[in-house]
């Protein structure tokens, strides 16, 4: 059973950035980390405290899923036979038809996948939710119900996302307005040039709506090469003109991996504090991870879709996603694998704007224990999560969600 937010003392754990391997303890109260250190185990725990022996496990912060689609998933359902065509528009049309006719329930499915994320150590999550002229706000309502149900343990941001385009489907703008009024945290957008066919008009409409509600923006930008770079520059113009520095994420950004010389664009992205999200797909160009980090660009990771009509791949395991990021970017050294983990931890929290993150006094008590020698070992081996604490509550043991 998921515990109430009682005082908690976890003893005999190791910190990944301490080469001495000296055991430490973590004290938690009111959902926050009170202290971390080697001497806490000698103190008498407060009355009614839960005391856990970590057994020498590695202590990690709760993981961050920076980009997924909870409303679409078929997680836990029968296998979906994927016969969709190869183009982005094929996938969009196929999904619209499936969701119209299958009775797919975004509330039930988003809850199932959220539970799986929690059991695997994810405590902060950003999900895009389709806002659609066929379904209206139905998918949003389902995910809002999941967010409410798990509010004490899963810090969830919802992006109102026009999966079928904004300008090309009249009425979508009004639905996005309604979605933000109903509780969506972030305004989404999609390929202003290649889907909407009007990058200036599409971006103007997106930024105007975000400005009206004071919301950040997270845009899917699949557009390749020079087309994507053109759209990116238009977006950066608006970030600068409207003072949106630090409030915009560009997801995927395939164009940055295809340009022969992206340095000038990357430097402007860094200057305007636009963050980048990558799922590190093996089949598409990806933003240059190390160069972005050198320039101070926040680049973080996410699964994108998980087991849906778009893709049979994906799993609610951010250690696996960190491993896939490592493989895609040819990260082999232990310090490089630490950068891959950063994409699903601190950088993810920074990119999404999740507050009070990390392993320090005052941070929200989101903790994961794994049996691993080092952080690199944890990323590569992806051991079962021995214990997961979310907002000071024990939510899973040995990979199984507490009931």
Overview of this structure, please?
With 403 residues, the chain is of the alpha/beta class. The chain folds into two domains: 8-61 and 358-401, Roll (Urease, subunit C, domain 1), CATH 2.30.40.10; 63-352, Metal-dependent hydrolases (TIM Barrel, Alpha-Beta Barrel). It is built from twelve helices and 16 strands. The strands form two sheets. It has an eight-stranded mixed β-sheet, covered by helices on one side. An eight-stranded parallel β-sheet has the order 5-6-7-8-9-10-11-12, with helices on both faces. Strand 15 (393-397) and strand 16 (400-401) form a beta hairpin. Helix 5 runs parallel beside helix 6 (225-242) and helix 10 packs across helix 12 (375-381). The mean pLDDT is 96.
Secondary-structure blueprint:
Elements (H helix, E strand, L loop, with lengths): L7 E8 L8 E6 L2 E6 L12 E12 L1 E6 L19 H14 L4 H14 L2 E9 L7 H12 L5 E7 L10 H11 L3 E5 L8 H15 L3 E5 L3 H18 L5 E5 L10 H9 L3 E4 L10 H7 L3 E3 L16 H11 L5 H10 L2 H7 L14 E4 L4 H7 L3 E6 L2 E5 L2 E2 L2
Parallel strand pairs: 1-4, 5-6, 6-7, 7-8, 8-9, 9-10, 10-11, 11-12
Antiparallel strand pairs: 1-2, 2-3, 4-13, 13-14, 14-15, 15-16
Helix pairs in contact: 2-3, 5-6, 9-10, 10-12
Provide tags for this entry.
single chain, 403 residues, alpha/beta, Urease, subunit C, domain 1, TIM Barrel, 2 domains, eight-stranded parallel beta sheet, globular
* Number of DSSP E strands: 16
- State the major sheet: 8 strands, mixed
Uncertain stretches:
none
Radius of gyration: 21 Å
CATH 4th-level superfamily of the largest domain: Metal-dependent hydrolases
Report the top-level CATH class of the largest domain.
Answer: Alpha Beta
Question: How confident is the prediction overall: mean pLDDT?
Answer: 96
Strand content: 15-25%
Class from helix and strand fractions: alpha/beta
Number of helices: 12
What CATH calls the topology of the largest domain is TIM Barrel
Order of helices and strands: EEEEEHHEHEHEHEHEHEHEHHHEHEEE
| Total separate domains | 2
What sort of overall outline do the alpha carbons produce when their principal axes are compared? globular
- CA-to-CA gap between the ends? 4 Å
Tell me what the CATH architecture of the largest domain is: Alpha-Beta Barrel
Strand order of the largest sheet: 3-2-1-4-13-14-15-16
- Helix amount: 25-40%
């Amino acid at each position: 059973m998921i515990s109430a937010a009682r005082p908690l003392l976890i003893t005999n754990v190791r910190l990944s950035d301490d080469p001495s391997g000296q055991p430490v303890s973590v004290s938690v109260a009111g959902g926050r980390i009170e202290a971390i250190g080697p001497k806490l185990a000698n103190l008498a725990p407060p009355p009614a405290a839960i005391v856990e022996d970590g057994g020498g496990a590695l202590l990690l912060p709760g993981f961050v899923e920076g980009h997924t689609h909870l409303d679409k998933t078929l997680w836990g359902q029968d296998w979906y036979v994927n016969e969709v065509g190869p183009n982005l528009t094929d996938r969009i049309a196929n999904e619209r038809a499936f969701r119209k006719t299958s009775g797919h329930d975004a509330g039930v499915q988003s809850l199932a996948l959220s539970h799986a994320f929690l059991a695997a150590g994810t405590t902060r999550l950003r999900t895009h939710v389709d806002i659609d002229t066929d379904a209206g706000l139905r998918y949003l309502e389902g995910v809002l119900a999941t967010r409410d149900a798990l509010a004490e343990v899963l810090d969830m941001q919802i992006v109102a996302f026009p999966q079928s385009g904004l300008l090309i489907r009249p009425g979508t703008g009004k639905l996005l307005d309604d979605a933000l009024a109903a509780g969506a945290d972030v305004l989404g957008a999609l390929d202003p040039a290649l889907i909407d066919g009007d990058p200036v008009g599409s971006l103007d409409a997106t930024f105007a709506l975000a400005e009206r509600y004071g919301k950040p923006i997270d845009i899917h930008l699949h557009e390749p090469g020079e087309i994507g770079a053109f759209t990116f520059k238009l977006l950066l113009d608006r970030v600068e003109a409207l003072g949106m520095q630090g409030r915009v994420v560009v997801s995927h950004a395939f164009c940055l991996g295809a340009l022969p010389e992206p340095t000038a664009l990357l430097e402007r992205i860094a200057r305007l504090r636009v963050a980048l999200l990558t799922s590190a797909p093996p089949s598409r160009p990806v933003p240059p991870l190390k160069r972005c980090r050198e320039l101070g660009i926040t680049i973080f990771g996410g699964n994108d879709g998980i087991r849906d009509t778009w893709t049979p791949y994906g799993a609610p395991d951010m250690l696996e996603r960190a491993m896939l990021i490592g493989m895609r970017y040819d990260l082999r050294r232990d310090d490089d694998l630490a950068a891959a983990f950063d994409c699903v931890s601190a950088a993810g929290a920074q990119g999404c704007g999740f507050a009070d993150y990390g392993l320090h006094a005052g941070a929200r008590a989101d903790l994961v224990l794994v049996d691993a020698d080092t952080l690199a070992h944890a990323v590569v081996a992806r051991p079962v999560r021995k214990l997961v604490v979310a907002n000071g509550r024990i939510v899973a043991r040995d990979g199984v969600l507490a009931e």
